[in-house]
Amino acid sequence: MHLHWLLLGFAVAVLIGAVLAVASAYGRWLDRQSPVGVWIARTAAGRITLQFEGGPREGLYKQLTESGDASPSREFGHWTVERETLRMLILATDVKRHPRFGADTPYRLTYLSILIKPMPRIQIDGPDRTKLVFRRAKPGSTLDFGPVPNIGRRPENQPT
């Protein structure tokens, strides 16, 4: 009878050790991930292109939202990531009175299909981005908002 309990105790200890080893390996893997790059999500309303610059843990982001019935809207801000928490802070946007403008907003970031080299995906879940799944854009893709008028230079008719 004592041998039975000894074997059961040993099996439980091995199981706990295996769970801890897997959790530790997952934590190390997660620490090496970064959202840097261009990502595209397709929704019922249209397409969202999101570019994370800088990195691997923080930088600037650009977002372009395109829908068939409205003009595209742009968003520019700062991002940070720690494990599964992505924080985004809108610094500029085309949306007037945006409710998240200037607010440091947390999202859950999940890496999906990261082992499938041709098409890794991420999921961002939180305000305005409810379980949005993004696929990585083709290598070399960038999101360029183009020149923004009157930033960093004076209009010609303004005195110096």
Shape: elongated
Specify the helix fraction band: 10-25%
Largest sheet: 8 strands, antiparallel, barrel
Query: Major sheet: order of its strands?
Result: 1-2-3-4-5-6-7-8
What are the low-pLDDT stretches, counting only 5+ consecutive residues below 50? 149-155
Give the tally of β-strands.
8
| Gyration radius from CA atoms, angstroms | 22 Å
Distance between the termini: 94 Å
The total count of helices amounts to: 1
Order of helices and strands: HEEEEEEEE
Average pLDDT metric = 81
In terms of DSSP E residues, the strand content is 35-45%
Report the oligomer: single chain
Summing up helix and strand content along with how strands pair, one would put the structural category as: alpha+beta
Walk me through this protein's architecture.
With 160 residues, this protein is of the alpha+beta class. 19% of the residues lie in helices and 42% in strands. The protein has one helix and eight strands, in the order αββββββββ. It has an eight-stranded antiparallel beta barrel. The longest helix is centred in the first third of the chain and has 30 residues, at 2-31. The termini are far apart. Mean pLDDT is 81; it is low at 149-155.
Describe this structure in a few short sentences.
With 160 residues, this protein is an alpha+beta fold. It has one helix at 2-31, and strands at residues 37-42, 46-52, 58-67, 70-82, 85-93, 104-112, 121-126, 129-136. Helix content is 19%, strand content 42%.
Which characteristics define this entry?
eight-stranded antiparallel beta barrel; 160 residues; alpha+beta
